[in-house]
Structure formats: structure tokens, C-alpha cells
Amino acid sequence: IDNILDLAVIEAGAMSLDIVEVPIEALLDDVLALSREQARKAGLEVLVKTADNCGTIECDQRRLKQAIYNLVTNAIKFTPRGGRLTLLARPAGEDEVEIIVRDTGIGIDEKERVAVFEKFYTGSSASGRKGVGLGLSLVQSFIELHRGRIALVSRPNEGTTVTCTLPRRQARDARLRQAI
Q1: CATH code for 2-167?
Q2: Low-confidence ranges of the chain (pLDDT < 50)
């Protein structure tokens, strides 16, 4: 229900971002703390790698954490027991940072990759698990609200890598930029 409400607010152009400066390592640690038990129960190895020079990012901490958490829980959901989930942060030039979620899961075939960020798209559900189909659409919206970009690379039976590239600094009066 929260995802539906968030998307409605975004589509109405009414979402404001509460921009604060956040250590990137702390942001990833928070996401890991929220998802660690779920990953353990799924039998996954979890690796977190933060480059020494990652520093901080200006962001709406709640929204960015929600976006990364959605990516991590998707990776957990679609990675078989014994698989690996990697959460990585590294600089991308002087003014940007990349936050990467990589898994060794079931992957996404080429036909479905073009649609995964569409609202209500649930895929073929080769894993037998289906959601509402809002998670990745919401992730994309939150990343774009931060003036960022999102890219997905995936191969069936090999896994998926989602890269969120974000500017380190935001305008203090950040308001919704029509992301949809």
C-alpha cells in the first residue's frame, strides 16, 4: 500500500525530497541491517563493499534507503539458496557515486528486461514468486527524483546487476522532477 501511495504522490507532482548529507557507508549499513535476516533465511551469502573514498551523498535518506532496500529484497527473492548478493558503492568520477546491487539469481531474459521498470509489471515469475509490480518502478522514480540514472544488466541463470548512478550533491530546494 505504501508503494501505491508513494507512486500516486510522485505522479501528482507533490513529492518533496528532504535532502540531508549522509555517509554512503552508513546508508548501505542501514539497508543491510534491514535485510540481513531475510538473506540469512534465504541461505544467501551477502557481501558489502564500499570504496574507501566514497564519502557522503546529499539525498533524501528515507527515499534512497527505500530504493536500495527494494533492490536488495528483489535480489534476495530471485536468488536461489547458496547464491550471493553483493552491495557495492564506489565513486563514479568526481561528482557522482554508483550504488550497485548484484546477485547470482535467476536473471531476467532480454524480452522482459525492457519492461521491468514499468508499473505493475510482474514478469514471468520463473521463481514462482510474484509481487504487485511496483518495486522497480518506484526505485526508478526515487533515483530519478535525485537526478540519478538506473541501469540493469541481466542474463538468465547468471544473475542481475542494477547500477544506480547518483550525483553527490542536490539542490537544497529539491522538488519533484517529473520522473514518470
Answers
A1: 3.30.565.10
A2: 1, 126-127, 131-133, 173-180
Nearest-angstrom CA–CA distance, 101 and 71:
7
Q: What is the pLDDT of residues 26-67, one digit of tens each?
A: 999 999 999 999 999 999 999 999 998 899 999 999 999 999
One-character DSSP codes across 128-173: S----S-HHHHHHHHHHHTT-EEEEEEETTTEEEEEEEEES---TT
> Which pLDDT value is given to residue 108?
86
* Beta strand residue intervals within the chain, DSSP E: 19-23, 45-50, 56-60, 84-92, 96-103, 149-155, 159-167
Closest Cα partner for 135 from 49, 48, 57, 76? 76
* Secondary-structure percent of the chain, ordered helix, strand, coil, rounded to 5: 35, 30, 40
